[in-house]
Write a structure and sequence with these properties.
With about 170 residues, this protein is an alpha/beta fold. It has a single domain, classed as Transcription Regulator spoIIAA (2-Layer Sandwich), CATH 3.30.750. Strand 7, helix 4 and strand 8 form a beta-alpha-beta unit. The longest helix has 18 residues.
Length: about 170
């Protein structure tokens, strides 16, 4: 799906990045070196549907990039949730359920970027604790997506960079 189908275009610092994958139920997704899967949410509410799509995308990317992710010790996730203003109980439960059932070693690190809202920050930290206990991955919660990109060593993809994420999730 092209970004033309979304009401909101990527915001800073993702402006101008070639679109690897986009879905109106979640936002934009990129898979970049060093084996970092970036989710840039454009939705305002985290729902069971958006949580399912996020985790289905992680699973599909893992299947397509198994060797690279294994060599890296798992995929790193950057979840830019600055657009969120709330989440449903079902969304939080679905996200936590999928984190708990993810095989150990699939995710090596998670960085979540949240807005100023204390409740969303606390929810992200609670989900991070679940991820750490269930899968052994570390998690940081930040407010600045540029800091998150730097922390993970991400360099913006060049225009025309081909995605390692074919249209795999609908």
């Amino acid at each position: 799906m092209s970004h033309a189908h979304l009401e909101t275009k990527p915001s800073w610092p993702f402006v101008g990045w070639p679109i690897h994958f986009a879905d109106r139920r979640l936002g934009y997704v990129w898979l970049v070196d060093p084996d970092v899967l970036i989710f840039h949410a454009t939705v305002t509410q985290g729902t069971a549907e958006s949580a399912t799509l996020l985790h289905d995308t992680v699973d599909a990317a893992w299947k397509l990039n198994r060797d690279a992710f294994t060599r890296a010790g798992g995929v790193a996730l950057l979840v830019d949730a600055r657009s969120l203003t709330s989440y449903t109980t079902e969304g939080r439960q679905r996200y936590a359920e999928r984190v708990r059932t993810r095989p150990r070693g699939h995710v090596r690190r998670v960085v979540v970027v949240v807005p100023q809202d204390r409740l969303l920050r606390m929810a992200a930290e609670a989900l991070g604790l679940i991820a750490q206990l269930a899968g052994g991955s570390s998690m940081e919660v930040l407010r600045d997506p540029k800091e998150a990109l730097e922390m993970l060593g991400v360099i913006a993809p060049a225009p025309g960079d081909l995605s390692r994420l074919p249209l795999m999730v609908r």
